[in-house]
Amino acid sequence: MADAETGVVHTFTVVHRSFVPAYQGREPYVLAWVELPGGGRAFGHVVGCQPEEVRIGMAVRVSYVDGLAQWRPL
């Protein structure tokens, strides 16, 4: 992981039932804390794979949609 646009999944949860109206009907989706190369962590959705494929330690790269981080597997 050479730059701030990449990281590894530190921890995550799969949301099966959302109480936030904007996310209802999008379930299941994955929310994760991602460990950054400099030691910090960032929060966001993991997209581009099935929820059951997400693993702690999985390498990801960030992209932004409407200013919100979305992490995709490398």
List keywords for this structure.
5-stranded mixed barrel, mainly beta, 74 residues
Please tell me about this protein's structure.
This protein is an all-beta fold and 74 residues long. Helix content is 0%, strand content 49%. It contains no helices and five strands. A five-stranded mixed β-barrel has the order 1-2-3-5-4. The protein is globular and about 35 Å long. The mean pLDDT is 91.
Largest sheet: 5 strands, mixed, barrel
> End-to-end span in angstroms?
10 Å
> How many beta-strand runs?
5
Reading the helices and strands in chain order gives EEEEE
The radius of gyration over CA amounts to 12 Å
Oligomer: single chain
Strand order of the largest sheet: 1-2-3-5-4
* Number of helical stretches of at least 4 residues: 0
Q: How is the topology of this model organized?
A:
Elements: E1 6-15, E2 29-35, E3 41-46, E4 59-65, E5 68-73
Parallel strand pairs: 3-5
Antiparallel strand pairs: 1-2, 1-4, 2-3, 4-5
What would you say about this model in short?
This protein has 74 residues and is mainly beta.
